[in-house]
Amino acid sequence: MTGEAEVAIQQIPELMAVSGIELVGPLPGDLHRYITLTAAIFTDATQRKAARAFVDFLTTPDALRSMKAHGMERA
């Protein structure tokens, strides 16, 4: 095997990170699924303020623009 492919089915952000491909879009209709990502701060986190700042940042317009630019969508 050469590691080359004609077609790939993968999460859009992962495909967008590969150079030399043409992203044609999500799978149609019922074949398309969303994956929900969540953030949490552990109760024993040693850097709670930094963790809270990061989680808060994830909801800012800048973070949402960056996520969208990398193929992610807001729920």
Give the tags.
single chain, 75 residues, mainly alpha, 32% helix, elongated
Oligomeric form: single chain
Strand content: under 5%
Major β-sheet annotation = none
Shape: elongated
The number of helical runs is 3
Query: How far apart, in Å, are the first and last alpha carbons?
Result: 38 Å
Mean of pLDDT: 90
Q: Classify the helix fraction into a percent range.
A: 25-40%
Category by helix and strand content: mainly alpha
Element order: H for helix, E for strand: HHH
Count of extended strands? 0
Structure characterization notes:
The chain has 75 residues and is mainly α. It has one domain. 32% of the residues lie in helices and 0% in strands.
What's the topology here?
Elements lengths: L11 H5 L31 H10 L3 H9 L6
What is this entry, summarized?
The chain has 75 residues and is mainly α. Helices cover 32% and strands 0% of the residues. It has one domain.
